[in-house]
TrEMBL record:
General function of this protein: The RecF protein is involved in DNA metabolism; it is required for DNA replication and normal SOS inducibility. RecF binds preferentially to single-stranded, linear DNA. It also seems to bind ATP.
Family annotation (InterPro entries): DNA-binding_RecF, DNA-binding_RecF_CS, P-loop_NTPase, RecF/RecN/SMC_N, RecF_2
Gene name of the encoded protein: recF
Native source species: Adlercreutzia faecimuris
Localization, UniProt: Cytoplasm
Membrane-spanning segments: none
Protein name, per record: DNA replication and repair protein RecF
Entry annotated with the keyword Cytoplasm: yes
């Protein structure tokens, strides 16, 4: 059974001294003027579900100005299980707990998954490969704690290697860090390739439904070792997908060869150029790169399709519908795309929507929702 959020408490988090929302149902609409704290609530819920924030803030930015520590808590239940997820932030430490017992972030991944959709996500197609890699990794991290741990390990290895290259360390040192990079990087590439393979049919199907007109969307994931570092201008149509399924041995071999072949370049540039930080993800609509040629509407349809596909993959893999967090996106979508998004919202998909304007919602939806006007009366 799907866990859903029953109540939320925020203490000294962002603009809130204390905020309690109780008796939370399937659909909550948070409405209020600019800067009233709508996104702060969404961010708090994301930190308690996906265990991350789309704003990528420091702890200092999240603790209310003037306070020493912040507390976030959610009571979640599926009718059988009653769970309290808590997060405490102080200094440089972020500490999660479940029913009062300290937990590592990795232990809680996937417990109450969520899909967040904010105006920044509209850059998923327009933006760089890095934006798309981050989106894929954020999904993978919720689905599989090992994906998350490998990603964190890889970030550390890469940081260390960059330091060594900057300091012009000896070849022996670079060889030994490359060994680690190959082990961790090959695993990360395999996780990415296999998640991508699951995601793509869902994205393509949803794009077809949203865009209509028989347009075909192709998505390609190309690991870094294929033809060197990817340029953003390369066409998705040219970027052949990784041979599926990508095995760890094949990934290791390809990474090793690419590292050996580009050692001189890495030395000259004094930074790592080979590794999953160079993987490319691209979209093509009817054979044309969506980043370069897609209309604004087409790009938005791809993003929406990607988000709905994320929700579908989470449900498929975790047997649980994710909480949907829609931060101020209704105003960014036209009527048809709004309708596509709203059609996904149902009683069994717990949804939080923020908006400055209720005019974007039809009456049927509003009457099914709990509308919370912010700021709350004291
Ligand atoms: N650490 C913090 N301490 C105190 N206030 C903070 C902190 N972080 C953010 N804020 C305040 O929170 C407010 C922004 O809140 P939020 O982003 O949730 O607004 P919003 O209602 O989503 O606005 P908009 O509709 O403009 O997007 C700002 O006024 C900001 O100063």
């Amino acid at each position: 059974m799907t866990l859903s959020i029953q109540s939320i408490e925020l203490r000294d988090f962002r603009s809130y001294g204390r905020l309690c929302l109780e008796g939370i149902g399937p659909l909550t609409v948070l409405v209020g003027p600019n800067a009233v704290g709508k996104t702060n609530i969404v961010e708090g819920i994301q930190l308690l579900t996906a265990l991350t924030s789309f704003r990528h803030p420091t702890i200092e930015q999240m603790v209310r100005r003037g306070a020493e520590r912040a507390f976030l808590g959610a009571h979640v239940s599926d009718g059988n299980r009653e769970l309290d997820v808590e997060l405490r932030m102080e200094g440089h430490a972020k500490r999660y707990a479940l029913n009062g017992k300290a937990k590592r972030t990795a232990d809680l991944k996937g417990l109450v998954p969520s899909v967040t959709f904010t105006p920044d996500d509209l850059d998923l197609v327009k933006g760089s490969h890095g934006t798309r890699r981050k989106a894929l990794d954020a999904l993978g991290s919720q689905l599989n704690a090992n994906y998350y741990l490998i990603l964190k390990d890889y970030e550390k290895v890469l940081q260390y290697k960059n330091r060594l290259l900057k300091e012009e360390a000896s070849d022996v040192m670079i060889d030994s860090i490359d060994e680690m990079l190959v082990t961790v990087g090959a695993q990360l590439a395999c996780y990415r390739a296999s998640l991508f393979e699951r995601l793509v049919p869902q994205v393509a199907r949803r794009y077809g439904e949203i865009a209509g007109r028989g347009e075909a969307l192709a998505c390609a994931y190309r690991p870094c070792w294929e033809a060197g570092a990817p340029a953003a201008s390369e066409s998705a149509a040219d970027a052949a997908p990784a041979l599926a399924p990508l095995t760890r041995d094949a990934a290791r071999e390809a990474l090793e060869a690419a590292l050996a072949g580009r050692r001189a370049e890495e030395r000259a540039r004094r930074r790592a150029v080979v590794g999953p930080q160079g993987d490319a993800i691209a979209f093509a609509i009817d054979g044309m790169d969506a980043t370069l040629y897609g209309s604004q509407g087409q790009q938005r349809s791809v993003v929406l399709a990607w988000k709905l596909a994320e929700a579908a993959v989470i449900e498929e893999m975790l047997d649980q519908k994710p909480v949907l967090l829609l931060d101020d996106v209704m105003s960014e979508l036209d009527e048809a795309r709004r309708a596509a998004l709203v059609s996904y919202i149902s009683d069994d998909v717990q949804t939080f929507i923020t908006t400055a304007n209720l005019a974007y919602f039809d009456q049927a939806m509003l009457s099914a929702a709990r509308v919370i006007q912010l700021p709350l009366a004291e």
